[in-house]
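BUG: 3D viewer hangs when loading the predicted structure for this chain

Environment: internal workstation, default settings.
Expected: structure renders.
Actual: progress bar stalls at 90%.

Input used:
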Amino acid sequence: MRIFIGIDVLEIKQQLQTVGNLLKPSLEKFKETHVDNYHITLLFIGEIDDPSVFYDDLSTVKSEPFDLLTNHVKSFQKGSNGVFYIDILKNDALTVLHQAIYDAITKHVAISNQPYNPHITLFRSAKLKPDTDLTPFVLSETLAVKAFHVYESHQVDGRLTYTIIKTFPLV
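Structure tokens produced before the viewer hung:
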């Protein structure tokens, strides 16, 4: 199973889709993230036979619910193309949650400790048309984080799908 841990963004998915639709004409090419796959990754784990091996440790991760604020559309290069995403404003509670999950998971799985850059991917393998300014593309929304989830990344009927397989409420 291909696994990651993330935060569902269901309550703002329509606003995310609206920003994506506004940005789309400014892209020469792209692979669009399906609206049902929008999320904030906390930790990518990768291939694992049985994710339940770390459920007990994840259940010990403690955090009170908190709010996140979305921001501008930004991008980073991945090869000759880019990833376009909604940025998440710096949030200490999110950083602490990410580190606690990393600490819990690495008891069971070796994972690289990359710098954490929370975001919501709108487009992958994308290229911006020349002279396009991303500054007008903004989404200022508050997202209430009340849980984190273990997701499976898999194909369903030929479409990449992220399915929640286990939920851990914040208390």
